[in-house]
Every structure is written in C-alpha cells, then in structure tokens.
What does this fold into?
Amino acid sequence: MASEKKLPSAATMAAINFASGGFAGFVEVCIMHPVDLVKTRYQVYPDTNASIVTCFRDMYRAEGFLSYYKGILPPLLAETPKRAVKFFTFEEYKRLFKALPISSALVYSGAGFMSGFTEAFVINPFERVKVLLQSQKQQYALQDSTWSTVRKIVRTDGLGLRGLNLGLTATIGRHAVFNCFYFGIYFTGLEATQASALPGRLDIARKFLIGFSAGTLASCINIPFDVAKSRIQGPQGKTKYRACFQTIGLVYREEGIIRLGPGGAIMLLVFEYTSAYLTSRIM
It folds into this structure.
C-alpha cells in the first residue's frame, strides 16, 4: 500500500504563496503596464480627449517605445512583497472569517477587504513614485530616474503622509474595495461552477473568464479611489487635491463620474498554477 503523501507545512505553504504571488505579479505587471500607464495619464490629465489608441500612438511618436514602460521599476520591485502580502494575508484572514457563522461569499469578501487594507501599507510608497514617473511626458531617456525621484520626494517632504506615503487613505480604499470584490466574486464563482468537471484547457478558460469578470467588476467599483489616488500622488496633487474624499467630491463636481479585467485574470491564473506546480514538486 502506497504511503500517504505529507501535506506541506504552514511555513512551506507561506513560502509557496510568497514565490507564486511574486511571480504572478511580475508577469501581470510586464503584460499590463502600458495599459496602466495610459490609465494613469487619463486620471492625472483629465483634459485628455484622445482615444486610447490615439494616446498610445501619440506617446510612441513624442516619447518613444520605451515610454510605455515609464515607472515600471517601482511596481516590479513591489510585486513580490505586495503579492506575498495579498495572498498570504488573504489566506490568514479567510481562516479567521471561516470561524464566523457567515456565508462563504462573505468569508471571501471580508478576507479580501482586510488583505487589501494590509496590502496598501506595503504598496503606497511604490505607487507614489510610479505615478510621478508615469506623469512625465518627456522622452524616456530624459526623465528622472526612480531613485532620483525617491530622493527628491524624501528630501522635500519626508517619508510621511505628505511625502513618500502621500495618498495612503486613497490607496487603502482602492485596495480594500478592489480585493473585497475581486476575491469575493472569483472564489464564489469558482464554487458555483465547480460541479462541472472540464478538461484542462476548458478549465483554464473557465477560471480566466471568472477572473476577468472579477477584475473588471472590482475595478469598476473601486475606480473613484483609484482616480483620487492618482490625482493626489500626481504632480498637481499639492495645489488642488489634498485628501481622499475631498478629491472624489471635487472630481465628481467638476467632471462627473482602463487595466480592468485582463490583469486580474492573468494574476490569479499564474498564481494558482504556479502554486500548484511548486506544491506538487515538494510533496
């Protein structure tokens, strides 16, 4: 009789989640960063009337191909700790919420909300630098480096809520709301469709579709916080946008109220299959 395989220890699973989350984040950033950059440009410069295609074309003509990757270093540096925090804390909060007499949908949503709240403290300084770099419209080779931007922020305004952590409240709102709906919709959708056993490629398509839907809906719901974060952290933040809800109200009064689903689907699929692969290699 074959001996039963031992389950990985808690420390091993934490390491697997860390590695899988980091790799998932790296892949997602590399694929989706140009879209994230255009989204930030729209949010920071609200008078932009060009279409997305025109924006990409004009950036290429005026700033060069590398302009699509402006500000990519901060998110790449942040992805391993960020995704590690996201997935590790989600699992831990999920364990705590499961002890409560609530539905599985509320378990996933509550754990997602708290994981996003925690994640925001890790990612906010990187977001502050990324938004400033993405806001610059000169040629890639002529713009400030990541490290000079960090030094300039710290030298002028310090490490606190007026400096490197400017926009923390909006970042907390963005990540908490996004993760709440993102994880809630994704895992509830998986449970609802689990009964239908599908072959490999169709199962990947099922998960991608659910992840795409979860990422799209979560992004649509959390967009006010995302816009507020970009406005506060952008170059005009000091002169016009001061606080999270003040900014949301101002944007609503003046203007009325795109990296949506694809990034969410890519990240969850890469995380899930990388985690499964690493677990199978250990067991």
About this structure: The domain at 21-280 is CATH 1.50.40.10 (Mitochondrial carrier fold). The radius of gyration is 20 Å. DSSP finds ten helices and no strands in the chain.
